[in-house]
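Design request, tokens follow.
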């Protein structure tokens, strides 16, 4: 199994998501690895840790999620493995429910969301963002 933490989706991943049926809620499972110290692309000096920079982004994004009818279901620090093995455990997990794929994609493509994304990039070493749905009954 190959596991590559990334900061952004690829064009292929975004196009594949856009082709998915858009019929109901979707859940994004996020696994985060934070930088020890925030690193802003513009080179600014900062005392922020990676998680502190990400929390600035997260607070603003929580408002965007609520505005489109989504909700943060769960967010926590990861403590250890029970089953399986990974070389480096992620630092945190979050599960976010969105009303639809199109709502999620519109939010991520919006200028309002983008104005806070530099905090996300400064704080994250990388992440996995996994799209899921509740199976039909």
């Amino acid at each position: 199994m190959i596991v590559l933490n990334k900061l952004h989706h690829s064009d292929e991943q975004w196009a594949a998501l856009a082709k998915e049926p858009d019929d109901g809620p979707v859940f994004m499972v996020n696994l985060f690895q934070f930088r020890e110290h925030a690193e802003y692309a513009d080179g600014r000096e900062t005392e922020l840790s990676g998680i502190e920079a990400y929390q600035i982004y997260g607070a603003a994004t929580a408002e965007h999620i609520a505005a489109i009818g989504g909700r943060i279901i769960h967010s926590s620090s990861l403590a250890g493995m029970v089953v399986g093995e990974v070389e480096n455990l992620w630092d945190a997990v979050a599960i976010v429910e969105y009303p639809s794929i199109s709502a999620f994609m519109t939010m991520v493509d919006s200028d309002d969301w983008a104005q806070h994304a530099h905090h996300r990039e400064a704080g994250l070493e990388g992440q996995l963002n996994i799209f899921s749905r509740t199976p039909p009954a």
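Comment from the thread starter after seeing the answer: thanks! The helical segments are 11-18, 50-67, 101-108, 111-114, 117-123.
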